[in-house]
Design goal:
75% of the residues lie in helices and 3% in strands. It has helices at 2-6, 11-60, 62-104, 117-132; strands at 144-145, 148-149. A two-stranded antiparallel sheet has the order 1-2. Strand 1 and strand 2 (148-149) form a beta hairpin. The longest helix has 50 residues, at 11-60.
Length: 151
Amino acid sequence: MIGSVLGDINVAGVVTMMVPIVGAVALFTYLSIASYAEERRKEREAAYRYEFERKVVEQHGVEAFDRLIARKREEELAARRSSYESTRSGGFVLMGAGAGMLLGLRWIDNGVWQAGWIPLLVGAALLVYSMFAPKPNAPGSDAAGPRGPVA
């Protein structure tokens, strides 16, 4: 029935082409909605945090303000530690993937195995960076951490 209406169009080929197109549209729609929801969540958290801090300072005065500042510094230090650790673990994962590609693709012809050097060297660069970057709990690391100066 469809073939007689559309003429000589290959319906199976059209359906085969539509699957990745619909999949790509669905993927990017999901990603845009997820990123929008994440940004709204961050905005709400910031508003709630600001409101909480304002009420604490109004009710308890200067000593509460000092405790809030100390808590913020601890949160920033924890965030820098997390960044440092994720950089280091990312370096190990990339080096492992590169070594696996070098060894696993070695028996394929045409030098495909050499693509393993890319993740291996990127992982090595991340490890070297994490070794020479200021440690999050080192003295003087408050001035500049792996994510730049702290305000």
